[in-house]
Amino acid sequence: MKKTMITGLLLSASMLALSAPAFAEELKVYISSQHQPQVWRQVLDKYEAANPGTKVTIETGGNTSEAQAQYLNTIMSAKDSSLDVLILDVIRPAQFAAAGWTSPFEGKDMSVYLPAYAEANTVDGKVVALPAFADSMFLYYRKDLLEKYGIQPPKTWDELKAAVKKINGGENNADLQGLSFQGKAIEGAVCTFLLPYWSQGKSLVQNGKLTFDKDAAVKSLKLWKSFVDEGVSKKNIAEVATDDTRKEFQAGNVVFAVNWSYAWAQSQGKDSAVVGKVGVTRLPAMTGGDQATCLGGWEWGVSAYSKNQDAAKKLVQFLSSPESSKFMAINGSLLPTYASLYQDADVVKAAPWFADAKQVVETAKPRPVTPRYNEVSETIRTTVNAVLAGVMTPEDGATQIESRLKRILR
Ligand code: GLC
Predict the structure, then answer these.
(1) CA pseudo-torsion sign 393, 395, 398, 404
(2) Backbone angles phi and psi of 174, in degrees to 5
(3) What DSSP letter does each residue of 277-294 carry, written as one string?
(4) Residue 20: its pLDDT value, please?
(5) Among positive and negative, which fits the CA dihedral 246, 247, 252, 253?
(6) CA–CA separation, 1 vs 247, rounded Å?
(7) Residue 106 phi, psi dihedral angles, 5° rounding
(8) By C-alpha distance, which of 11, 70, 123, 90 is closest to 378?
(9) The domain at 136-294+367-408 falls in which architecture?
(10) C-alpha to C-alpha distance for 192 and 244, rounded to whole angstroms
(11) Which ligand 1 atom is the nearest neighbour of the CA of 241?
(12) Whose CA is closest to atom 3 on ligand 1?
């Protein structure tokens, strides 16, 4: 009798456990696989610990910005409610807001963030997403090799070529590439084109109007092609995406690399052949021009189709907090969105060059802001790729960019 009672009790207890939801709230966060979901996981673990009853899972996808955007476009066009929180490249909040895909944040004070991100996330006076991390393109270099040959970090692309020739002459290592950059037809190749273009003092779009300078565009495309033709970059550079550059530099096979901040953490990690041998500085300029870089960064949006609006917004506030920004700076080398963190002792210990990086982010140039950015991007990146693959001349490339952008930005 007693035994039956106990069994009965146990049974009903386990039935209860089965029927009651394990968590009051479950949220799904979409993170691009390039941006260290495993480190963001640790931030989410902290959130779960502080908010018992909330479970957050990660969905990853898209190792490049445009692959990720393509995926999200499909999900959002279908009004799919399975994703609550989305990480978005800095070029996308305007498009997502225009499509009605993100829910605005009411009463959020954006002045706490670096101004570029307050601006990128405010569309028609509404805050449409909150900053995840800041970003810019930098020149990574092998400190040990530059020191060995008595070379200062180059300030112009010509100086970089000269440095590579000197190092290659001495090292005599056929596997050592002079410069790795992004020539694949990915979003990053838009920045590849713009870096030397901007460096000549030219703009691409102003007040929504095309301000294309063909001569500067030809020079930009010629510069990148010359790296291939002169053997500074490898022949298949037209197949190289951002994370390929990160991997080959980290393996010790590259002297100079154009990359974003995330590449630092892994270059100093356990799988790296270049721990303690890496310097990071501003990107070189065209001779006679100014050093210029591309503004990057990612933002947290709440899906307009999420069924957990309040919980998702609460989580985004946490993901965008100084505490999370600091954690990601230290553990993932993602640049902070809060000015004061660039001087933070723990941050500077993990990434000493962050101490000088705020100025770079603050003077970085944004890619054109237009609801038709996808077409602008596609035009530029496919042309850069065709020139580097040798199927189009720099002159024809510049003509193609000009005529297509004229139609898009009419
Ligand atoms: C980085 C930047 C992002 C940029 C992308 C291009 O992730 O943060 O803004 O669009 O690289 O590859």
Answers:
(1) negative
(2) -65, -20
(3) -EEEEPPPB-TTS----B
(4) 55
(5) negative
(6) 68
(7) -85, 140
(8) 70
(9) 3-Layer(aba) Sandwich (3.40)
(10) 15
(11) 12
(12) 296
pLDDT digits (tens, 9 = 90+) for 190-228: 999 999 999 999 999 998 899 999 999 999 999 999 999
Residue indicated by tokens 């009605």: 100
Cα–Cα distance for residue pair 104/126, rounded to 1 Å = 6
Strands 295-302 and 85-89, by their bridges, are antiparallel
Pairing state between β 85-89 and 25-32: parallel
Burial class (CB in 10 A: 0-12, 13-18, 19+), 14: exposed
The pLDDT value recorded for residue 392 is 98
Average pLDDT of 392-410?
Answer: 97
330 closest CA partner among 312, 348, 317: 348
**Distance from C-alpha of 365 to C-alpha of 92, rounded to nearest angstrom:** 16
pTM for the structure as a whole = 0.93
Domain boundaries, given as residue ranges, for the chain = 23-128+295-363, 136-294+367-408
Among all chains, which residue has been given the structure tokens 């008595």? Answer: 150
CA 372, 377, 381 angle in degrees (round to 5)? Answer: 160
pLDDT, residue 18, reads 54
In the chain, how long is the greatest CA-to-CA distance?
Answer: 95
Q: DSSP state, 185?
A: S
The Cα–Cα gap between 110 and 61 comes to 29
Q: Does the pLDDT value for residue 102 go beyond 60?
A: yes
Contact at 8 Å (CB) between 337 and 319? no
**For a substitution probing ligand 1, which of 66, 68, 187, 380 has the most ligand atoms within 8 Å of its CB?**
187
First vs last Cα of the chain: how many Å apart?
Answer: 86
Cβ < 6 Å from ligand 1: which residues? 64-65, 89-91, 135, 186-188, 242, 260, 296-298
| Rounded Cα distance, 36 and 145, in Å | 29
Which fold would CATH assign to domain 23-128+295-363?
D-Maltodextrin-Binding Protein; domain 2 (3.40.190)
d(CA 168, CA 254): 11
| Closest ligand 1 atom number to CA of residue 191 | 6
CA atoms of 72 and 62, how far apart (whole Å): 10
Which residue has the CA at smallest separation from atom 1 of ligand 1?
296
221 closest CA partner among 193, 189, 180: 193
